[in-house]
Write a structure and sequence with these properties.
4-stranded antiparallel β-sheet; mainly beta; 5-stranded antiparallel β-sheet; 9 strands
């Protein structure tokens, strides 16, 4: 049996606001692990995971679940099963007192 290694893709890097980067999964990925990490000092903030058919889609993206609260010096993991086109991690509530990074692992 072949071992599948998931590659790390940054969706947000030391950010406080914004849509971040969209990653095109091309409808071929079935398992997603998304790590949301707050730096030291974070007092508030939230990340909304979203999906669309194309990473360049200019309309309103579909929310995946509820916003995830960003906490200081903490990593939170969201795992998803299913096929999507593109995914992004939009900072829906401004991160204060620090920054937020979001990483996608897909297999």
């Amino acid at each position: 049996m072949e071992t599948v290694v998931a590659k790390k893709h940054p969706l947000q890097t030391a950010a406080t606001t914004g849509n971040g980067l969209a990653y095109d999964l091309q409808g071929t990925i079935k398992n997603l692990s998304i790590y949301i990490e707050g730096s030291a000092g974070v007092g508030a903030g939230a990340v909304q995971l979203e999906t669309a058919t194309d990473p360049a889609y200019a309309g309103t993206w579909h929310a995946i679940g509820s916003p995830v609260t960003v906490s200081a010096s903490t990593q939170k993991l969201v795992q998803l099963a299913g096929v999507v086109g593109a995914v992004r991690a939009r900072i829906s509530t401004t991160v204060t007192g620090g920054t937020c990074s979001v990483f996608l692992y897909a297999s």
